[in-house]
Amino acid sequence: MVRKRFDEQLEELNVQLIEMGALCEDAINLAVDAFLKRDVSEIQGKFHLEEVIDQKEKDIEALCLRLLLQQQPVASDLRTISSALKMISDMERIGDQAEDIAEITKHIADRDLVSSTHIEDMAKATIKMVTESVESYVQKDFELAQAVIDYDDVVDDLFNRVKEELTRIILADRDRAEYCMDVLMISKYFERIGDHATNIAEWVQFALTGKHAEES
Questions:
Q1: 115-126 burial: b if 16+ Cβ within 10 Å, else e
Q2: What is the pLDDT of residue 49?
Q3: How far, in Å, CA of 88 to CA of 105, rounded?
Q4: 3-state secondary structure of 141
Q5: What CATH number does the domain located at 2-209 have?
Q6: How many secondary structure helices (H) and strands (E) does the chain include?
Q7: Helix intervals (H) in 38-74
Q8: Which candidate in 92, 156, 165, 201 could, as Cys together with 145 as Cys, close a disulfide (CB 3.0–4.6 Å)?
Q9: Does this model's pTM top 0.85?
């Protein structure tokens, strides 16, 4: 009976993590959509997700503590719960960085958009990483977690392409230097989101094996 209740709470943890991951996806989507459409009103009217993500982190943290204090988890359960606590910290940072992208967009919305193809691709790639990192936790899928870790190379490559593209624009028109630096910061935030998704995937692997990526 005790184990049944514990398993039910673990399932609740999975649901809460899926919901938090979906909120992160929404925040990234909203931030990049505002950037591409140059729509400041959309940011001001809808970008409250960071606060919702913060609250979700607190809720999951409280659930994890209940699992630790009220139940008697075995070693594998302890790894699962401790990994979840690490994961929500990375997801909270993803929400922060999506908000940072939106804040920068507010300041550059009145400027002509430089080529955005690679940034849009970065957004899609990071959303894929966030989604699949959470799925790998819920499905206890080591290989999917590894695929997320490997996919970070795609995001890094896109970031390098953005840097090269912006460098060419600055060399051709130095009046656009400040604007290009803002766009570079946006791409850097996407690159960091990819890093956080990688961290999540590495904690999934730890939950499954008891070893960190470096040890593996």
A1: ebebbbbbbbbb
A2: 81
A3: 26
A4: coil
A5: 1.20.58.220
A6: 7, 0
A7: 40-46, 49-70
A8: 201
A9: yes
